Every structure is written in structure tokens, then in C-alpha cells.
Amino acid sequence: MDSSQLPLDLGHRPALGREDFLIAPCNELAVAWIDRWPDWPGHTLGFYGPSGCGKTHLAQVWRADSAAVLVTAEGLAEMDADVLLAGQRNCVVDDIVPALTKSSELQRRLFHLYNYVREEKGYLLFTGQEAPARWAVDLPDLASRLAAVPAFALGLPDDFLFEALLVKLFYDRQLTISKEVLRFLVLRLDRSFEAARQIVSTLDQASLASQREITIPFIRGVLEKETRA
């Protein structure tokens, strides 16, 4: 193997049918709590952090383990808890805060969902940019329930995790990149999972279309075209 190419030798966690979830200090506590399920205090848990930190991805890992139903603001607004869960006892309430804070009816429905899952001895996982205890809700009973949810922060990837993520995303597409290309990207991209996925997808498509290798000059050209677009 060319010494200028990076081998894929990363500690990673299979995400049960999804992309591997890479573990690093910014998310290892949240991963540990996923591993502890069903030993969750109060049958509830919250993950929070900035957009792109991987909280929704990690929630999907738990869904695969628990057969949890994904609850969105739209679904919660349209269906009662028993219909929404369709016989399941576990659910992920994923990033509904923007809609929740604007709707007293949605707050009432979330309160009933919470109680329904607890009565069924199921489990709830909340995700959002802030811990559930900090969600701006007006319904006192819901606010008290959310205040009691143990919540754990996920941070944006550090350099090590971000480099590992880029290598893995390229590897998934059967592409290899040089160390120089990797450092070039790391120094120029936002530190988020979404930014990594987007640039790898863009470069893969551009490389296929032009039949060119992914080099630093090639990346500069792609980025310049995106800036002009």
C-alpha cells in the first residue's frame, strides 16, 4: 500500500444498517448511555447539541436496538399517542422544539405521549439543540416532566473524529484520499457530520463526472464552482 494513502484503521461502532457511528470524546458518554439501555433512570433520556453533532444519528442506532417509533412534530400534531406508536412502547422525539414552543396543543400532545409511554413501561429518547429541561414550554405539567429528563451533550467532532469520518465516508464510496487531501479538507470545512457528508458526496459526483482523481487542485476547482453558483 502506498504510504501516502491512509489505511482505514478506525475505532467505529456498527450502526445496524446505517453508516458506522464513530466514537470520540465528544460523544462517548452518550454512546455509553445507549449501551446501558434499558437501564435508563425514569425510562427517559435526552441528547442535545448543535446541528450536525450526530445526535439524530445516534438516536437511529437506539431505534434499531429498541424498535422505537420516530416521533416528529407533524406526526404528533396529527395522531394520538396510541395511534402514533402503533403497538410499540418506545419512541424517539426528534428535534420538535421549534414547533413545540409555538403550539400549546402540541405541548399537550407531548405531555400525553410522555404519560402514555410511561404507563406502557416504554422508553423515551428526546433530541434537540438544548437539553429538554431548557425547552421553553408553557404547560407546567410538561415542563416538570422535561425538567426530570437526564440529558447528555454531544459536541461537534474534534480533529481526530472529523478526519476519521472523512476517511470512512470516502471509503464507503470506494475512494481513497491522500494525507495531504485530508488535511486540506479538515482545515477548510465546518466541523459537522453534515458538512463532511456533503463534501464527500459532492467530490464523488464531480470526480465521476470528470473522470478525475480527487486531488487538492481538483477540490479547489470544485469549491470555487460552488462559491460562484
Automatic annotation (TrEMBL):
InterPro entries: Hda_lid (IPR055199), P-loop_NTPase (IPR027417). Gene3D superfamilies: 1.10.8.60, P-loop containing nucleotide triphosphate hydrolases (3.40.50.300). Pfam families: Hda_lid. SUPFAM superfamilies: P-loop containing nucleoside triphosphate hydrolases. Residues 172-223 form the Hda lid domain. PANTHER family: CHROMOSOMAL REPLICATION INITIATOR PROTEIN DNAA (PTHR30050), DNAA REGULATORY INACTIVATOR HDA (PTHR30050:SF5). This is DnaA/Hda family protein. It comes from Kiloniella laminariae. The lineage of its organism: Bacteria, Pseudomonadati, Pseudomonadota, Alphaproteobacteria, Rhodospirillales.
